């Protein structure tokens, strides 16, 4: 991949896309193209094909998708399956039609069965039923993998897929209704710390910056401390404790998003679909219980209250540790420990409000 090659990042403003953009620029790639959603709706086939016809990107990073945590996945099932299917189909087909040399499709570890041996190997795909809480999203991501595979098979394209573990980092989504678990933990403990310190000015700044979700933003009166207290209580935040969903017993693996970006650029530059097979896992290789991750986040944020669990709420999959031995054997290794990545993410999160 030459430094002046024309590179398109689909989803350049999201968590993964923005990280890819930073990484490529740092590595000296100078010809990166991108479009905002209001400029290009990737769910529209005609618009997507027109863009590819006009721009003719040589390399495509498919990072665009509709994503969210367990609440969003259970609530917006039709949106998750339709939008993600449409984006994948339109971008992959357009890359083929207009001669892209290579495409890298970024998936998700939720493609794996609910019940499978741990750690999860690439060959476990479609060997059992999916986790019901994110089935709609998972089906769309599996379809994208198969699209790449069958385009390679029929049209001799060079499309590869990577399956990252749970990601977090700079430019993450901190809306508590749609956020994944780690950014949600960061924000809940931060808000609880501010509430414990009676720092309502900072709470108001936080709400204005990131919104709360759950329909609360339309009703909370930020001029009233009682109204703020009530809104935060509804999402499990009090000065004395933070209430989290589930039991805290499931295990989760996390990877700092810039480590994923380094892996993606490495693979795009050095490996093709024949070398990789159908797809390749990218993870840290270790996991922790949610309750231990929560305790780590709590310490980094410096919140001094308690953690409680609402065991009436679902846990999701009990474990999702991925086998990343294939990419590690190719020479890639993560740079950030979990604590380092959380600290960087929290510092960025706070800096946006300064």
What's the overall average pLDDT, rounded?
94
The major pleated sheet works out as: 6 strands, parallel
For the secondary structure, the number of strands is 12
- Class of the domain at 7-171 and 253-285 and 321-336, according to the CATH hierarchy? Alpha Beta
How many helical stretches? 13
Q: What is the CATH architecture descriptor of the domain at 7-171 and 253-285 and 321-336?
A: 3-Layer(aba) Sandwich
Distance between the termini: 39 Å
Here the CATH topology of the domain at 7-171 and 253-285 and 321-336 equals Rossmann fold
Output the CATH homologous superfamily of the domain at 7-171 and 253-285 and 321-336: NAD(P)-binding Rossmann-like Domain
Which stretches are low in confidence, meaning pLDDT under 50 for 5 or more residues running?
A: none
Secondary-structure content class: alpha/beta
DSSP helix fraction: 40-55%
Strand fraction equals: 5-15%
Q: Please give the order of strands in the largest beta sheet.
A: 2-1-3-4-5-10
SSE series: EHEHEHHEHEEHHHEEEHHEEHEHH
| Shape type | globular
Rg (CA only): 20 Å
